[in-house]
């Protein structure tokens, strides 16, 4: 069961990180748009990000559960803890 949780967590975190990367990569193009153009194209992006948007809170929950189920003070525990802190930082930034 732990292996299944690990694979699911990695998959959901990858989706959340892909969405964050997409936001960062689209920013230079959006900065070149005028106000009216920006508001005209914004609805194009919205549906895709809302579908995958559940991955961000799910990645935090799954990482926390995985951290709780991992034996403490092992290398895996500390790596998962670092990943969890990184996910929290991603949420704080975006």
Give a verbal description of the structure.
- The chain is built from 4 helices and no strands.
- The chain is an all-alpha fold and 94 residues long.
- The chain has one domain (2-93).
- Helix 1 packs antiparallel against helix 3 (55-69) and helix 3 runs antiparallel to helix 4.
- The longest helix has 30 residues, at 2-31.
- It starts with a helix and ends with a helix.
Q: What are the secondary-structure elements, in order, as H or E?
A: HHHH
Indicate the overall shape.
elongated
Range of strand content: under 5%
Q: Please count the helical segments.
A: 4
Low-confidence stretches: none
Number of extended strands: 0
Give the class from helix and strand content and strand pairing: mainly alpha
Q: Report mean pLDDT, rounded to a whole number.
A: 88
| Biggest sheet details | none
N/C terminus separation: 32 Å
Radius of gyration using CA atoms only: 17 Å
Q: Give the number of domains.
A: 1
Question: Any key phrases for this structure?
Answer:
mainly alpha, 94 residues, single chain, 4 helices, 87% helix
Précis, in short:
The protein is built from four helices and no strands. With 94 residues, it is mostly helical.
Question: What is the topological layout?
Answer:
Blueprint: H1 2-31, H2 35-52, H3 55-69, H4 75-93
């Amino acid at each position: 069961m732990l292996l299944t949780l690990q694979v699911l967590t990695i998959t959901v975190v990858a989706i959340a990180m892909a969405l964050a990367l997409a936001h960062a990569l689209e920013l230079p193009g959006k900065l070149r748009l005028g106000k009216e153009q920006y508001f005209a194209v914004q609805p194009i992006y919205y549906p895709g990000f809302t579908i995958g948007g559940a991955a961000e809170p799910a990645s935090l929950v799954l990482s926390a559960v995985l951290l709780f189920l991992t034996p403490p003070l092992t290398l895996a525990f500390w790596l998962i803890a670092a990943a969890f802190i990184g996910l929290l930082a991603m949420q704080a930034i975006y």
